[in-house]
Every structure is written in structure tokens, then in C-alpha cells.
Amino acid sequence: MGELPLSLAVNGREYEFNDRLVTHSPLGGGEDGPAASTPARVAVVGLGYVGLPTVVEFHSKRIDVIGVDTSSERLRSILDGDVELAESDREELRRALGTEGIRLTSDSGAIAEAEAIVICVPTPVREDGTPELAALRAACTEVASQARPGQTLILTSTTYVGTTRELLVEPLRRRELLPGRDVYVAFSAERIDPGNPDHRQQDTPRVVGGVTKNCSARAADVINQVTDSVFLVSSPEAAELTKLYENIFRAVTLALANEFAEVCRNLELDPIEVTLAAGTKPYGFLGGFPGPGVGGHCIPCDPYYLLWQLRSQGVSAPLLEQVMRVIRDRPQQVVTRVAELLAESGLTPGGARVLLVGVSYKAGVADLRESPALSILSGLAELGAEIGYYDPLVPRVRLSESTELVSEISPAEGSWDLVLVHTPHPEFDYRWVGRFPLVLDATYRFDHAPHRRLV
């Protein structure tokens, strides 16, 4: 395993900290038990956007995999190939399902057959920003109740600090299964970047924090099957907070990027040009690009796990609280900007025809989770606009119990008063957008409408 350069902003002397990283040597063992070994069979609990690629990656290493999911509908979708994988992983899954190396089931009892269990269930938040822990608690309860001596249990779901001990270690102790002696328990957060072929799971380092050193070694040997680089931290808590810090940093960066874009517009400057220019500095700057808002499974949700935990302890985090308010309010800023541009053209939102181009939260994926497009469409509808959208990857969007939209078949032929570019996907042609006189570019990088206006 080669040396990994750090991504820090410490005056360009990141290399001085490389010796502080504890790298995992495969099959190295630990001080409190026998050497670890590569598992012959792994059970993956939860087959969503993390679990399913994890199944595919394990199978590609010739490890038998048991995929467990409580949703029979999800299992059918996987068998039908109707899943949100990259095409290469989709093809690998198709091949794997034709072999004996993968078994999909809703029977949690099957996890007893595996040497290692990887928990990949979703950890969303409610409307009020409090964690929705039902799926996580249910999965951990089931795994702890089914665990047998010798197994390695790894939680990968992003969650609050202390979850691994609370939901896995304590139930195991009550069964007189001692971590580090009878079973091996660790936390290793997923690092999957959906729709980005430049960040393959195998090439993306992972962090592992075990309850004991031998727990770390056992868990790291399992995680080493899906990535070439594994780094060890002192505890599950350190690994849990590492994941939260990663996504909180991204939240802060994106909130600042959106605010800076507003500054640039007021000064009649291009925020992309300024950001790229600042990025030429080889130290002390880590930037981000502005957009219509922040969506997906991580940034709009994960920081709330820390805020929720801190509030329960009577501790405040004012910067983070403000950042999350800024992120929450960004879609409404886009709606306000639409209304401003319509007014400049002598139109009012009421009755204006507005088309959103792309509604998924990220280019190249058909994922609507926390997508700013949903709030933007709802906000425009509340102003009385006649709304539509075009997204070849997302055929339908449900805004409420009574409102469902269908993607436009021929958007170029519509009589739209304003076209809002939200999420153009890389494999489709959007040159037709430039034919419309009023184009609002919420990506700040849309090249097919030279007359575009920015949020």
C-alpha cells in the first residue's frame, strides 16, 4: 500500500502528518488475539445505495455474499436489474446473480452463516432535523441477536458518536459475547460517491475503529477486500466522528460557495472563475462550487446527527447550526431568483410556465433523496407557476400526496417562460435549452445558453 497524500489546509506541510496515520497491514493480527483472516463469506445487511455496491465489490473478490434486506420490493428490483448502480457495477451484478456466489434474502437468520457482517442501513433525518433511527436500531438488534462467536461485525451507516457501543457492543455483552475475545466489532463508515467513476470504491481509503486492537485488525481485513487502503483510529467513536466531520466540512464549504456566488453576482463577477483562480494556490485553500442547493444522503442529513447529540448534552455548535440553516434555505433563494427574473421580463410567477432541467440531486444518478429540485418545484407551485420538468433518469416525481409530475417527453417544444437548469446529466444533449430567451443557470457551469442568468 503506497503513501496517501493528506487533503488538509495546513500551510502546505500536510506531509508532516503522514506518520500520524496508522495504516493497516493485511492479516497483521492484533495484540489481544490471534491474527485475522479473510472471510470466506460476508453478509451485507441493507441493500441500498451503499449495501448493493458493497455486495458487488465483495463478490468481485471471489467472496461469497449473503445480501439481506427486509424489503421484498427492493429484492425484486435488484433481481430485475432496476437499481441505481453504475453500468459497470450493474453488469457485474447481472453476472453475479447468475452464480452461486450471491444469495439475496429477507431472512436475517442467514447472517449466522457468514464470518463477517457489514451493516449498511439508511440513517435519514425527519423534517425537524432529528435522526430517524428505526432502521438502524432494528438492524443492529437483529445482528446482535443472531451473532455467533468468531464473527466480525462492522457498522458502516453514518450515525451519532457512540452508536457502535450502544447498539452492538452492549447487546452482545448481555449475551456474554465479549468484543475482542468472542466477536469482533468495529465502525467503518462508507465512502461511496454515486455516479462518479473517478471515485471507485476500491480506490477510496477507508477508516476503521475497533472496540479493541484485534477488533480493528479483523474488521480492517474485511474492509480491505473492498478498498486498497485502510487506516486505523483508536476507537469506534473516533471513526464515527470522522465521518460526521467529513460531511460537516463539505456542508460548510458548499454553504460558503453558495453565499460567495451571491457576492460575485452583486459584483458582476463569475464565481466559477474566481473559485478556480483561488484553487491554483497549492496550500491553504479547499474550495467548492455553488449550486441550487445540497441534496443526497449525506450533507443535508449527517450533520444533524451531531447537532442532535450535542443538544441532548446541552452543548451548542453555532457555526454548524447556521450552516445547516443556510443549506435549508438555499432552494427558496432559487425560487426568489426565478420570480425576480420573471418580473424583469414583465411576468409574474402566477401563471408563468417554468421548466426544471434535471431533478435528481446529482448529475449521473437517478436519486431524488433530499434533492433541492423538490423544494424548488413546490415553491414555484405555491407562487402559482405552471411547473414542469425534464429528467431522462427520473420519469416521475411526487411532490405531495395529490401532486405527481411526469418528465416532459419533448421539452424543447414547450412554450416555457423560463428554463431553470438544475441537474443536467452528462450523457444527454441540452443544446435546445439555449433556444429559450430566459434561462436561469443554477449550476453556474451550463455552456449551452450564452445568455443565461445566474442564481
Automatic annotation (TrEMBL):
Residue ranges of domain UDP-glucose/GDP-mannose dehydrogenase C-terminal in the record: 355-448
Phylogenetic classification of the source organism: Bacteria, Bacillati, Actinomycetota, Actinomycetes, Actinopolysporales
GO molecular function terms listed in the Swiss-Prot or TrEMBL record: NAD binding; oxidoreductase activity, acting on the CH-CH group of donors, NAD or NADP as acceptor; oxidoreductase activity, acting on the CH-OH group of donors, NAD or NADP as acceptor
Superkingdom of the source species: Bacteria
Family: Belongs to the UDP-glucose/GDP-mannose dehydrogenase family.
Gene Ontology biological process terms from the UniProt entry: polysaccharide biosynthetic process
Alphabetical UniProt keywords: NAD, Oxidoreductase
Protein name: Nucleotide sugar dehydrogenase
